[in-house]
Design brief:
The chain has helices at residues 2-23, 52-59, 128-135, 172-175, and strands spanning 27-35, 40-47, 64-74, 82-96, 101-112, 118-125, 137-143, 154-163, 184-185, 189-194. By secondary structure, it is α+β, with helices and mostly antiparallel strands.
């Protein structure tokens, strides 16, 4: 009986390690930067962001989130680059089984709520492919540097994304311990440009 238990545990860990290894292939791709002195606008997508297991988890109603990091630096030759701004925001998806739709929260696109306070945008879509596309991309993100960008200066933009752990209530956090293997982060994508 003990051998069967050991075999089962080993098989589970081998399967989970293959999931983790696959998800590490995700990377920041298709980056478009439009700059002006007062702000830059960034669009991008995360390629290979979803494994079948992550997709199945989302379909079963497990809340999943991406955290995006954007940093902007002014290049200073032989000295350390000067940090001008950084921005962090999340995309959170949860499948509503009653309405049969995916609810996606976009923190980078705030709207005015009923109490005139800024709240994240909430989107609802029916198809998993559409939900995945929205979750794994940033569209026209406004980044405001301080001080403003100077003509002829060199700048460096960095972008990274992480798929965050799902915080499940007790006892699900013990029953579904494998969800923690979903965690991963992309390497930093870096793009240099000269202000025109």
């Amino acid at each position: 009986m003990f051998r069967i238990f050991i075999f089962f545990v080993a098989a589970v860990f081998l399967h989970l390690s293959s999931i983790f290894a696959y998800s590490m292939d995700a990377l920041v791709d298709r980056v478009v930067v439009v700059n002006s002195p007062n702000d830059i606008r960034v669009s991008f997508e995360i390629r290979d962001a979803f494994t079948k297991e992550i997709e199945d988890g989302i379909k079963s109603g497990i809340s999943t989130s991406f955290t995006f990091f954007i940093e902007l630096y002014r290049r200073r030759g032989f000295w350390f680059d000067e940090s001008l701004t950084s921005q962090t925001f999340k995309h959170i998806v949860k499948y509503d089984t009653l309405k049969e739709e995916y609810e996606i929260v976009l923190e980078e696109k705030p709207q005015l709520g009923t109490d005139l306070k800024s709240v994240p945008t909430l989107m609802r879509v029916k198809e998993i492919e559409q939900a995945k596309k929205i979750m794994a991309s940033g569209d026209n993100i406004i980044v405001k540097p301080f001080p403003v960008l100077q003509k002829g200066e060199r700048y460096r933009l960095r972008i990274k994304a992480t798929l965050d752990a799902v915080n499940l209530p007790f006892p699900l956090n013990y029953m579904l311990f494998f969800v923690s293997f979903w965690n991963y982060e992309t390497s930093w994508y870096e793009k240099e440009f000269i202000m025109q």
